[in-house]
From TrEMBL:
Domain NADPH-dependent FMN reductase-like: 1-137
Name listed for the protein in its UniProt record: NAD(P)H-dependent FMN reductase
Pfam families reported for this sequence: FMN_red
Highest taxon, organism lineage: Bacteria
Organism classification: Bacteria, Bacillati, Actinomycetota, Actinomycetes, Streptosporangiales
InterPro entries: Flavoprotein-like_sf, FMN_Rdtase-like_dom, NAD(P)H-dep_reductase
Gene Ontology MF term list: FMN binding; oxidoreductase activity
Listed GO CC annotations: cytosol
């Protein structure tokens, strides 16, 4: 089982990325995770460019998605919606078929009272357009205060790890 982890933040030391990096540590035996690293290098989406030959970074993104059995996203909200670079990544997935019917879920780490709900509502809509299969049981809010991210960039809090493992297990069972 291969799960592709996609962080919606390009910020260094992002709590969203810390949550996904922690996923790699707690993943059950037999589950391989990989964190997509090309978010900041994707060209701006232009439908005129969504054909052969694709930009190399887009080929890389689509190959990672194709090779994964499931996708797990973790993204912040920015200005009431998805961060621009992350929305750009998602736009590049709509023209491909790699994400179609692929089990997908997201973890929301926001500690804000609104819980970054607008971003995740938007993510749901975009994944719907791309034909992804949203695994509701694997989606959820696991608030992560920055002070719980260790110097190693991982979350060591047992309760948060337990909630994350519950969501990851739900994704694995569907995929």
């Amino acid at each position: 089982m291969r799960i592709l982890l996609i962080c919606g933040s390009v910020r260094g030391g992002s709590v969203n990325e810390a949550m996904l990096r922690t996923t790699t540590v707690i993943a059950p035996k037999g589950v391989t995770t990989s964190l997509f690293q090309g978010l900041a290098t994707l060209p701006h989406f232009n439908p005129d460019d969504d054909h052969h030959p694709l930009p190399p970074t887009v080929i890389d993104l689509r190959l990672h998605i194709e090779q994964a059995d499931a996708l797990l996203f973790c993204t912040p909200e920015y200005a009431g919606g998805l961060p621009g670079p992350f929305k750009n990544l998602l736009d590049w997935t709509v023209g491909g078929v790699e994400i179609s019917d692929k089990p997908c879920a997201w973890i929301n780490v926001s500690i804000a009272s609104t819980g970054a709900l607008p971003a995740h509502d938007s993510l749901r809509r975009v994944l719907g357009y791309a034909g992804a299969r949203i695994v509701e049981e694997a989606c959820g809010r696991i608030p992560l205060p920055r002070h719980l991210v260790g110097p190693d960039g991982l979350v060591h809090d047992a309760a948060i790890r337990g909630e994350l493992l519950t969501k990851l297990t739900a994704l694995i069972e569907i995929a």
